Amino acid sequence: MKEPINLVMDAIDVETFLACTSEEEARNTMLEIMKRMGLNEAEIVFVETIGPGARVRARCYVHKPGDEYRWLRGGRKHG
Amino acid sequence: MRSLRIGFAGTAKNTGKTTTLSALMDSFLEDGWRLGLTSIGYDGENLDNVTGLPKPRIYVQPGVLVATSTRCVEASSAKLRLVRETDINTSLGPVIIGKVEEPGLVVLAGPSYSKGLESVLLLFEEEGVRVSFIDGAFGRIAPMNVADGLVLCTGAARDRRVSVIAEEARGVERILKLNSWSGSPDAVLPQGSLIGEYPDEGLLPVRLPPRGAVLVEGAVSPAALNLFLSSHRELLDGGTVVFENPVSLIAGGAAAENERLIRQFHSVKFCVLKRLELFGVTVNPFYPERGRVEGTFEARYIDAVKLLDVFRRNLETLVLDVKREGIGALYQQVLAYLRNWEPQACRQLYRKCTS
Amino acid sequence: MVEEKKKILLAPLDPVHDVGLKMIRRALDEAGYETNLLPPDLPPEEIVKNMIAYKPDYTLIGRTLGYDVETVLSRLVDLADASGLRPKMKMVVGGMPIKPELAAELGFDAGFGPGTTPEEVVAYIEGRLEAEQHTKVLRQKPKIAEGFSYRFVNEEIGRLCSEIADEALAWASERTSPGIERSQIRREMFSLQRRGDSAGVEKLRREYAALCDSFIKPFYDLGQTVGKTRLLSESELAALNEYAAEAASRLVPRRVRHSKERPLVFTQYGTGCPFMDVAHIKVVEAWGADGVIHFDPSWGARHEGLLEGHITHEEDGSPITPENLALIKHSLMPWTLWQVRAHRGLNTPETVVLAGEMKADLTKVNMVYGSLGAGTDPERLVVDGTEALRLAAEYGLPYDVVTNEELCGVPAYKAFAGMLIVATMGIKLGGRPILKPLFCYSPEVLINGQMSDNYVDFNAAKLMALRSIIDAPVWPGEPVGFMTHTSDRIQASATTMLHACLASSLDAVAVTISSSDEAFSGGPISAASRVDTLRAVTEGMRFFGKAKIQPTEKAEEFARGITEGIQKVLQQVKARGSFVSALYEGLLGNKEDGVYPGRAGRQTVRTRST
């Protein structure tokens, strides 16, 4: 069976609202969530913390330009 | 010289149409016949379930002429050399005729209507093709009226109840076995007279000579045919109703009901202007069952022995399970037809192949 | 002989929905066809009866998806064939997501997907498109720079531009550069290649290499890779072509524009990897983009010479080579417009040659921005740019003249003066320039407050000013809403959409939009972010349709200010008597504005030997 994550064309973005008190907490929490989902090299694309918490979006690149794109049929190598 | 034109009609997907067609082609090829291959539409069965992409299915050998649309040529792994261009268009591009140079799989999408199919077959014949293979498309049969005969492919994928599919095949068989008729009809019902719920009263004949013949043009709907036959029972008693071809009674999914009417009105003789031979019926015990995981299918089989037995008891035509029994009997059946149909050419080729 | 009207039968094979067919009928009636709309939901047999009686040239079946729809449709086609109708009548199905494969399987001549406009159906009936194309939703490649007279409405500004342009053209005509010589060699190489003279090509390649700088030269002399690039392998190329063909075969594009034919919507690509570029191009094509713009690496402008071969680059920007461009071109849908930018560096004329030879639809030239904002020596770029304008005219390539120096801080009026001079030079050389002012939150407005209340007035004023000066196409760039984007994708999509709708309201010919992650600097643009803004713009276009956005009275005031400013700058340039000197001396943007003359290619211009 195909590995599901291989079908991600480039990046996985995860967006949510965190009940937290500071931007720093939001960033760290979000990165921790990503890590626990197996998305280790995540970055914060956007965070906005007001009152009740933070709207936050993290991104993990699965395929960057020049990588081997595993969404190709047959999983051929290429640049 | 005209080729023998064999159509392959499947009653549903997964009934083994492609297997039958490929096996029969191989038999002819081994004996050195020059073959042509086309279809009356894209075979939707050939979609890769995961990706939704065309998946080439029919393996072709060098020398075979193939008529398909340009987009399908690109998707084929067989190497084709362009022989003729045609002015027939499909939604997958214009139809071209190519000669297989290197063997491989081809995706077929030929002309989707009778007239277009006829012109492709004529081009085949100009290029020396002796046997033309016409792959069917799901739900349609009308273009097959330009063929000489049919191979009907059915099986558990159509319905798991053997009696149901055997009865259906029997209906098609009876329609295809209607006698041919020639002469000049006493009345003609033009196209459209017997389509729909009611016969077109304005076009019905006022009077028929005793034992006269009525020619019905075009397709026929069971409802209109029923009303026409019942309301003119006396007039038609002992007379003949002539249809253009068997396809007129089968098109639009009307085979079973039309056949029932033909049996019911036994005091009327039913004929066709142009016959279509039934070379054989192939049966396939396989059916796909939806798997527990969404989008997956598992292979299942009904009792193959019983399937063959019921069909053979109900049908007069040759019945074959190609996977179990091979294609030999069907091949011999077509050759026998060919011998009578075109004795000279056949004998020449026979000598060539046996020497 | 009077040609008989084509007859079209419309049959809604659907219990409820016949709105689509009613709209199509109206369009067909208006186009002068005879139509007959059947009541909804007749059985196939009754429709065939109507076909027999009416003898249509076309039957259009409207059907949204429903239970067993394929069986019903194939029965209908089968009955029509068995009734002898098919040779003289084409059958088309619409309203359902139909792929060409399914249309062929069911026996239809063509299928129209959801979102097809009545006009597209009319175009199909009129035979303006191949069956293959309209089955995927028929689209034609739009023309972008036609229908404009290029005449100055403001005569004084027209006179000034004309005199400045004459001076600049005369000055440039006496000069040449390594960039021009390479473009001539490259052109000759294409010509020899077409004749199959590979020895001749090889000889020219050596001459070409001699005109490259020390960064590019090792590639030709020693076969070394340059910078962070490498050659793609054969198997990679095969996989790329296969991917593009397969994606194209499944591509039934959405439509971004609603009731207007303009503005055409462009997006930019240039991930560094031609493979990812093609993947992204397929995505934006699917979500309805009309055109795509090639971005090359920033070093591409600074070095003498272009590379050859299928080359991938580890960082932003996909190298311009004949092979890379051919690869991209091959992957484009037939209706997609393609711009290859030449505007700013040391390879400007050669890039126009490549764009022309590779059958691009557009290029881009602007000597003012290139020399003040992008680091190229003004003298060199005026010489090269003039040659590029000449080549673009010769290849029939329209080009935009962009005012990116606004982003560096040059006020709009100054940047526009430069743009108008370059456009006038282009017009005089027989070209079709497109004016490309920025729709942006520029340093100028940040400081002077023209956008303190809204983003509409000053952007609208730019177009109003240009329209009061010259009858030429205007294409706000690039991407619109520059400096208003944040990395919040909702905010970025909304601001992109609103700027695009403003462009539509102002009847711009085209608009370039960004992705919703344009402001995120942590990594490459993602495909999903490209879809975000295309979807937002689609909704905006649907919302506004032909309705206008109403600027306040401030816009008129701004427009007058811009026009007066342009005139003043042009007078100064005219008085200086030399376009090139005006560039060096800051008349079109200076250090205080935030720009300075570039140094790349200094002292490489030579007087043409007679």
Structure description:
The complex is a heterotrimer of chains A (79), B (355) and C (610). Chain A is of the alpha+beta class and 79 residues long. Chain A has one helix at 23-36, and strands spanning 11-18, 42-50, 53-61. Chain B is of the alpha/beta class and 355 residues long. A 9-stranded mixed sheet of chain B has the order 5-6-4-2-8-1-9-15-18, with helices on both faces. In chain B, strands 10-14-13-12-11 form a 5-stranded parallel sheet, with no helix packed on it. In chain B, strands 3-7 form a two-stranded antiparallel sheet. Helix content of chain C is 48%, strand content 12%. In chain C, the strands form 5 sheets. Chain C has a 7-stranded parallel sheet with strand order 14-13-12-11-9-8-17. A 5-stranded parallel sheet of chain C has the order 2-1-3-4-5, with helices on both faces. In chain C, strand 1 (7-12), helix 1 (19-30) and strand 2 (34-37) form a beta-alpha-beta unit. In chain C, 59% of the residues are buried. Mean pLDDT of chain C is 90; it is low at 131-138. Chains in contact: A-C, B-C.
